[in-house]
Structures are given as C-alpha cells and as structure tokens.
Design brief:
The chain is α/β, with parallel strands linked by helices. It has helices spanning about 35-45, 70-85, 95-105, 140-150, 155-170, 175-180, 195-205, 220-225, 225-235; strands at about 15, 20-25, 45-50, 90-95, 110-115, 185-190, 210-215. It contains nine helices and seven strands, in the order E-E-H-E-H-E-H-E-H-H-H-E-H-E-H-H. Strands 1-3-2-4-5-6-7 form a seven-stranded mixed beta sheet, with helices on both faces.
Amino acid sequence: MENETTDPAVALWFTAQGKGRPFVLLHPGGTDSRALGPLVDELAGRYRVLTPDQRAHGHTPDQQGPLSYAVMAEDTIAFLEKEAETPVHLLGYSDGAVIALTVAIKRPDLVRDLVVVAGVYHHDGWEPGVPESEAQVPEFMAEAYAEVSPDGREHYGQVVAKLDRMHAAEPAFTDADLAGLEVPVLVLVGDDDEVRLEHAVAMYRALPHGELAVVPHASHGVLVEKPGLCARLITDFHVTDKPGTFAPIRRRPGP
C-alpha cells in the first residue's frame, strides 16, 4: 500500500465541460489537463467532464516539499468531495493513472468505476529508461508549463526533479492491493506503450473486476493518437448491463 500523508490538500484548478454523469480525468505528469483535450472533445457530449490540474502542474501552484502520488491523491479526494457529485467515473492517464488508482484504493466510495490509461501499479512496470529524466524532457513541455503556471518557467526544472525522485520509488502497490479493489477497472494501453505489456496484463489479472484494452498502432500517447477509439472503449466499459460472453474464463457465461 502507498504511504499515507498528512499534508494539507491543495485546491486544484479545473475546467468543467458538458452535461451528464460526472467523469473526472486526471492528466499525465509534467504536463496539465490540456493534454486531455482530444479525449474531452469526444466525451463532453455524453458526460460532465471535469479536468483538474494537479499541484505543481498547469494552473495549480507547487508547494514546499516533495511530490508523491499519495499527496496528489489527497488533493484529488478533496476535489471530488467539493466539486463533483460522487461517485464519479474516474480516469487517469500515465502519472494521473497512478493517482486515480490511489484514490480508488483509499476511497472507493467516491469512485463508480476507473480507467487506468498507460499507467503502472508498481514503478518496475515501466520500460527501461522510462519515465524520462529531467535532462530528456522535451522543450515544448517546459514552454507549455510556462504558458499557464503561476510559478513561472524557471520553476519547471524543480518540478521535473521532484517527479524524478517520485518515479524512482513510486508507486509500489502489490497484487494484494489490487485484489481488494471492488470497483470495475479498465486497463488501457497502447501496443507500443512505455508501460510494459506484461505489467498491464498482470494488473488486469490482479483486479477482481478488471477489463483490458490494448490499442493497436499506439504509443504512450494513445489518448492523443486515437481519441475516438479510446472514447468508444471507455463508454462501452461504462455500460452497466453488459451481456455475458460466449466462452468466458474469468466472467459469467452469456445466455
């Protein structure tokens, strides 16, 4: 189980679009909720889509001390309790997937179901050399940070250094942690993702109510590369009265 935190929650800047059931999307690390724009465009006609910026990302300022998935999950829990009609559909992308998974494990009462996109449950689930270190971060990410951050462009290096330290040791969930998660979970990755496919399959197998989607000809940028296909997979996952399948191994048989 991830370490507990007593740090006070930070109020997260967010946008809200569309009408319908609340669907909260958590962005990747080192960027902000703008990275979710292509998927939001596909979903906003069906849901009320809320996209918060995590602390030290986008419009939400950094705080003293290290970054951790636990502290960002606490921020997100406070956000859900204040800004959303819970339980919500919850999706996290890359680092956002780990935050979303942490929220679902700690506060399953706030989560209707969960989509884990291009994320890991243990830090050994990344391909070697991933995530990128500070020296490898593309310049356009620093420029995007400078466009909206209240902390200024010069602070971006400090944020990436904090992320590097976090990624070296987190997350560290176990199969037992996943086995205790009773909400439905869709594990979604590209077939050429930075997440090892073996790790994504292990996550799926450890979840009691898991589903798995491997998107062909897609990388770690799967939500940007194929937002329409991903939106169809996600909305199908959200269907509550799914029929049984013809030859199931893990699920109940069809009629």
